[in-house]
Amino acid sequence: MQAAPLDNPRYYLANFDTLIDWVCQCHADLLTEAERATVDAIAHLPDASRALLVRLLMRKGDHFERSQLHYPEIGAIEAASQPLITPLADSATPDGLCRHNVDLTLDEMLALVTLPRLRAAFPELPRSTPKRRMHDAISELLGDVTPRPLLAWLNDPAADTLSVGLGELSRRLSLMFFGNLRQNLSDFVLSELGLLRCETVALSPASRAFTDRWEVDRYLALEQLREDWQQASERLGRTANVELERHWQRIVAALDATPSAAANELHSEPSATPQLTDAHATDGRAIDDRANTWLAQRRDRLRFSLARDAERQGWHQAAARQYACLEDSAYAPRAMPRRVRALELSCDISAAHALASERLARAEITLDEQLALERALPRLCRGLGLPAPRRAKAPTTPQITLTVPDLSTSAADGIHGVERAAAHALATPEAPVFYVENGLIPALFTLLCWEALFTPLPGAFFHAFHTGPADLYRPDFVSRRQAAFEACFTRLKDESYRKVIRERHQQKQGIQAPFVHWELLSEELLNHALDCIPPAHLEACFHHLLANPREHRAGLPDLIQFFPEHSSDRYRLIEVKAPTDRLQDNQRQWLALFARHAIPALECRVQWQSTAEASVDECSRHKAPPAS
Predict the structure, then answer these.
(1) pLDDT at 277
(2) Beta strand 571-577 with 601-608: parallel, antiparallel or unpaired?
(3) What is the pLDDT confidence band of residue 622, given thresholds at 50, 70 and 90?
(4) Which of 297, 302, 540, 550 could lock 473 by a disulfide, CB 3.0 to 4.6 Å apart?
(5) What's the CA gap between 380 and 384, in Å, rounded?
């Protein structure tokens, strides 16, 4: 599966054919007869018509003015469009792949027409009327703004439009190919340009993203709900109002409905879904929970997002109810502290206290959740007049205070940011400092475990344009590769890890991979890290990363300083904090891990230099520990 060369004038058509062929090869059983008929009709179009259709699919929107379409490799647009507007009986697009001069709403018309043309079409309006006010101005002028063809809106017989008639089918085909709606045909182009280099993974028909049609329907329905809420939020504003809350409630009510029911809930046309068999004759929740944890997780992610938006709007009781629905999901560790907070803000402090106390008593609580709840519990106790609970003393991290020039002074010297200012102050020729933040330890993990990450397991890779396994943040990500990860970690014990990581750094340079930022991971940094960081420290960090890749990929210290001439304590990690900064929970977790495993780390508190004199003594005092 390769992108078409860009010297082919119709490269985009060749890429589209690759997408269609792969879907027909791997997902034909998930298409209805009408959809297959439409795909077959596209394949039998003249090349110029197929090229025009793909060009329109790649553009934003569904409606286009024919006179504004100019593609030299296609030729005469009118001739190429004629087969597209021919009706197709027994297909998913009986009115044709495109429609000619359809009725447009006022908003659709405004999206097509430039401001000068609007002024010419509506000369009664003041010439100072800006585009953003044209909707209200035209509505007031005409009174009747029912949909009509563009030529009727502009009173211009030459205003001729083409509208793509594939509807949901184009999204469905793209989704079945990519396994998401984030990617599109432009990824083929990026690959051909060398801007998107991906690891080669063996693909087969078994690599497909979906195994049942209801899964595609469910994915599209969830995406429709997300988009509908996003559009409503933008349209109605972020301030709490009755209409926005009502819309939120409708979205939530549709979350657990079947795909067609969700579509009806939003007054949109449901997708053409074949009759469910007896095996699937259950509601959407039962199907999700039993047969596809991936879709269940997507639903839970949308629910979590909706609950967060409810919190922001002040709908705290409604937010708490949605967080409660996530109790048995992968989002539980993130949802529980938010649920406690929502109950507190809804003045149900007693329930919030009971919930936090009960959760903290559980043995299987995650560290992320524990830290958040331990921070909330004293506040809840004060609200109820109860004595504050005794908390276990957190491991202490050594601190230093460093005085550096203020940011404007540092920037004038080409040093941007408080972290780089601290690095500049601490570095010496014998003890270099690198600004790495989250770009070193996770990258070393990826280079060591490359084969495990890119193992072609079902549900991990669907196409050639991936940036990593699709299941990276799913709960079973590690368990599905347990033996492979253990084999990788064995290399840390037999000292072969250095050779493996160095070879991967050379062989895989520039290839997209999780946690790797190639521009940061220089050969100098890599060599210092492999020479100075003990393998036991790397293993402890790698296990912590795998415990929760989504959360633990961040929070690592900003700087690393190496002491290659020392016989021990040959490096230290440095978390830099400006005067008003404080540690985040994920940073506290990493620092606690470092304390448990005797990994050298410290917190550097920066103070701005208040005089013109350089604070030489202050800087030199912390540049390096004594040689050992």
Answers:
(1) 34
(2) parallel
(3) low
(4) 550
(5) 6
At 52, the pLDDT band (50, 70, 90 cuts) reads very high
CA distances (Å), origin 158, targets 67, 97, 149, 161, 311: 8, 22, 11, 9, 51
What is the distance of C-alpha 386 from the center of its chain? Answer: 42
Task: Name the least confident of 90-99, 244-253, 428-437.
Answer: 90-99
- What does the pLDDT look like over 556-579, one tens digit per residue? 999 999 999 998 899 999 999 998
Sign of CA dihedral 195, 199, 205, 207: negative
DSSP letters for 149-209: -HHHHHT-TT--EEEE--THHHHHHHHHHHSSSS--THHHHHHHHTSS--------GGG-S
- Asked if pLDDT for residue 445 goes beyond 60, the answer is yes
pTM summary value: 0.80
Helix, strand, coil fractions of the chain, as percent rounded to 5: 55, 5, 40
For residues 373, 377, 379, 385, the Cα torsion angle rounded to the nearest 10 degrees is 160
Burial class (CB in 10 A: 0-12, 13-18, 19+), 441: buried
Residue with more model confidence, 498 or 616: 498
The DSSP code sequence of 477-525 is: TTGGGHHHHHHHHHHHHTTTHHHHHHHHHHHTTT---TT--TTT--HHH
Q: What is residue 259's three-state secondary structure?
A: helix
How far apart (Å, rounded) are the C-alpha atoms in residues 30 and 176?
9
- Name, in order, each residue with C-beta under 8 angstroms of 305's C-beta and a sequence gap of 6 or more: 226
Question: DSSP letters of 368-431?
Answer: HHHHHHHHHHHHHHHHHTPPPPP-PPPPP--EEEEEE--HHHHHHTT--SHHHHHHHHH-BTTB
- For the purposes of burial, counting CB atoms within 10 Å of the CB of 443, is it exposed (0-12), middle (13-18) or buried (19 or more)? buried
Pairing of strands 433-435, 559-562: antiparallel
Phi and psi, residue 256, nearest 5°: -100, 10
Strands 601-608 and 399-404: parallel
- The H-or-E segment that residue 359 falls in is helix 349-360
The pLDDT tens digits of the residues spanning 254-313 come to: 987 655 444 454 444 333 333 333 334 334 444 444 457 788 888 999 999 999 999 999
Determine the pLDDT at residue 190.
Answer: 66
Show the tokens assigned to 609.
Answer: 């230099």
SS3 for 476?
coil
Place of tokens 């060009």: 55
Q: Which residues pair with 428 in a beta bridge?
A: 431
- Report the distance separating Cα 424 and Cα 617, nearest Å: 15
- The tokens for 530 are 């492999």
99 and 64 Cβ atoms separated by less than 8 Å: no
Q: Distances from the Cα of 42 to the Cαs of 49, 129, 464, 558, 622, in angstroms?
A: 9, 43, 24, 53, 69
Under 8 Å between Cβ of 410 and 404: yes
